[in-house]
Fold this sequence. Notes:
By secondary structure, this protein is of the alpha/beta class.
Amino acid sequence: MSIRNVLFFDYPRAYLDDQEDLLRIFKNVGKRGAFIMQQDLLDFEVTLAKYTGSKYAIGVANATDGLEFSWMALGLRSGDEVICCSHTMLATAAAIKTAGGVPVPVELDDDGLLDPAAVEAAINPRTVGIMPTQLNGRTCKMDKIMAIAEKNHFFVVEDAAQALGSRYKGQHAGTFGDVAAISFFPAKVLGCLGDGGGVITNDYGVFDKIYQLHDHGRDVEGEVKSWGRNSRLDNLQAAILNHRIATYDQIILRRRAIAAMYQQQLGDMEELKLPPAPDADPDHFDIYQNYELQADRRDELKNFLAKNNIGTLIQWGGKAVHQWKHLGFLVRLPKVEHFFERCIMFPMNIFIDDADINYVCEKVREFYRK
Ligand SMILES: Cc1ncc(COP(=O)(O)O)c(C=O)c1O
């Protein structure tokens, strides 16, 4: 098999493959001078709400702000504890912290997502909320998490940064709890050409507060009702997202096909624990934001693949949230820590073709044959 070059993610192609349409959009937006809070943004907010089955959507500057605003809008107070998974991006826990609360990271389940049993075990009188991350494009078992939340009258903010299009039992990620945020970072399945985010909710009160927070305290009518910041999604980015969301479902199907190929070619390997296959459980519809697996001799495998021009990624600097020593967490989470010794992400994006996947799988098999 000849040598190929399979990048983990090809950032220039996020522009180059779409160049003609993007230039048309730049010209169109530029000619109108439609830079801030214009029709493209309003259109995108309507589309996003409709796509996710939410009543309200707000374009924000990035998902991190959206998550922080969510907790602020729910009235998080100093010392309030929120339970989240330690296998998530720091932004999840940071949003709780910067909104004034205390993030309480806990263990993952067999899917690598927030474990409902660990949530129950972490509840104490200071707990006010749960923050599941719909990680890698897979939605947590939200019926279990919502049952815990309802029983204890907890708020739920979903970190759906990686989960636009993901569903659990037919319901869209981000619509189970009080509010959720989605990211449009360029490497996301729906990515723009810079930072971008969206908040979705069915609660008008939450929508109204987040709207004010993201636009200098102004409500939808322009009346200043509170102190706010500037965290608006650029109109140009919204125009790009309007263009890209039109073919989004096809992109998800391609990613699911890639996951099925990995499963078919590597599913029998004892050295690997692959993520659930697309058809493994009818309750889950995964969009494969990432293809994250666990591997024996993970670091050696990564080096071997790199020598064969295959890009892989160990997410978030190779550490779970609670493992960053300057952040002051004292907890030990053996399952998460074991996971972070073994986890690796294989290429998963629309720039790779079937021959690339075959090459990756062949090289993985070759490594373990040695
Ligand atoms: C799970 C998770 N949460 C939050 C974020 C933050 O999103 P953003 O970069 O749009 O602030 C990301 C982005 O990578 C993410 O993957």
